[in-house]
Specification:
By secondary structure, the protein is mainly α. It has 21 helices and no strands.
């Protein structure tokens, strides 16, 4: 099935196509202008030194170095300008990647309604909605940019909600989710800024907004599952798997990088650590647009189940081995100190050798467990084929073998109907004797 048919069944033409493309170009040009013109203000923001208390810098100016942080940079041969330049590079690579993927989808599929929505989501969300630092610094330095930035931000928020409710078919499923889209889009707007007096008189509104957001996330996940099981075609299911896989892996991968910042474990006094965490966060989150591009642009998607399977196996294997390694070192060192009174490098060597010896057995056990737990049908089919191949070497009864073959085909392929046609010995003999 082609991508054009598998993404959605609706295409635009005539006046509507012209209007949609014009609107997309307006949003894209504005977003690109924000990316470019925010470079000087972002550079000044990261170069400034936060002289307030450490807690204030961590909460208001997360990525600005403190005086202690500036000295730490000098100790490794970097200046505040170099630190600012590296931060700007990371920001712009992140923003431009989202923008480039969206522009590529627009270039290839601009007449497809769903692809156009996906493209608008990428070009607006990446540069502004998901990375507001550059836009905020631009507004702070040049207030005239407030309206363009806010316009692109609204487009990004609207397209984000619609993307997760419509992809990949381009239709609301079930139909009542269109009202859910209205609620979530309204909740995404800065109502506390538009109605500050109302929020100040009613503090419970913030709690209500948070509950609506959490309920919306659950509803978005449920709607994707519902669409996947009830309406999606095989090609659309592959597209959904790619988006869910990339989004889940990208969001989950950001937690180790964002959690230390949110818990104020790092701050402006350790700017290099902040920069490394920020780089890891950006690279991890880039899996989202890249997976979306694969789902939208490839007409014949390769099986993402294999990639998911390997990710589960080797991710779990890495976690277990690291836990064993460091846990074994800590426990062994404590025992060694208790008996000898000193540490030993032999413990590290022994732990390394033990981990090397455990790699293959543990990988096989994890592979078997994941196959049984998450890929039960494929696991049972493989086991059935292995058992049949063993029996095939020793079976001499043709009728029994035929019955076994039918059972194996039903259990593994699960067709609607199975028939086995065998030629008679006389027919085979006549064909061998025929001159043709």
């Amino acid at each position: 099935m082609s991508t054009r048919a598998s993404i959605s069944t609706a295409t635009l033409d005539g006046r509507w196509l012209f209007l949609a493309r014009t609107a997309w170009v307006a949003v894209a040009v504005t977003a690109l202008a924000i990316i470019v013109f925010s470079v000087p203000s972002s550079f000044d923001y990261y170069r400034d030194v936060c002289a307030a208390a450490s807690e204030v810098c961590s909460e208001r100016a997360v990525h600005q170095a403190t005086p202690e942080g500036v000295r730490a940079l000098r100790d490794v041969g970097l200046s505040a300008r170099s630190y600012a330049l590296l931060n700007v590079v990371v920001d712009k690579v992140f923003q431009l990647t989202w923008f480039a993927v969206g522009a590529l989808i627009f270039w290839r599929r601009s007449d497809d309604r769903m692809a156009l929505l996906v493209s608008a989501f990428l070009v607006s969300s990446g540069p502004v909605t998901l990375d507001p630092t550059a836009a905020n610094t631009l507004i702070s330095s040049q207030p005239a940019w407030w309206l363009p930035v806010r316009s692109v931000d609204i487009v990004g928020e609207v397209c984000t909600v619609l993307f997760f409710l419509l992809f990949p078919s381009g239709r609301f499923a079930p139909r009542w989710t269109r009202w859910l889209a209205v609620v979530l889009i309204a909740n995404d707007q800065d109502l506390d800024v538009l109605f500050p007096e109302l929020y100040s008189r009613t503090p419970a509104l913030e709690t209500v907004s948070l509950l609506v957001f959490l309920g919306g996330v659950v509803s978005l996940v449920w709607s994707q599952v519902y669409r996947y099981r009830r309406f999606s075609s095989p090609a659309q299911r592959q597209q959904t798997k790619w988006v869910v896989f990339g989004t889940t892996l990208g969001v989950a991968g950001t937690f180790p990088f964002q959690l230390p910042v949110d818990l104020l474990l790092v701050g402006g006094d350790t700017p290099l650590t902040l920069l490394l965490l920020k780089t890891g966060f950006a690279l991890s989150f880039l899996l989202v647009p890249l997976s979306i591009s694969v789902a939208v642009l490839r007409s014949r998607l390769f099986d993402v189940d294999v990639l998911i399977n390997r990710t589960l196996v080797y991710g779990s294997l890495t976690t277990v081995l690291v836990a064993f390694y460091f846990g074994g070192i800590v426990l062994s060192q404590r025992l060694f100190v208790a008996f000898t009174g000193q540490r030993s490098t032999l413990v590290v060597v022994a732990s390394t050798l033990l981990i090397a010896a455990l790699f293959n057995p543990l990988r096989r056990r994890l592979q078997s467990f994941i196959d049984r737990r998450f890929y039960r049908r494929k696991y049972d089919a493989r086991k059935t084929l292995e058992a049949f191949s063993v029996k095939l070497r020793d079976e001499t009864d043709l009728d029994g073998l035929r019955e076994d073959l039918v059972v194996v085909v039903k259990e593994t392929v699960q067709p609607a109907h199975v028939s086995v046609w065998l030629r008679s010995p006389d027919e085979i003999h006549r064909r061998e004797e025929s001159p043709g």
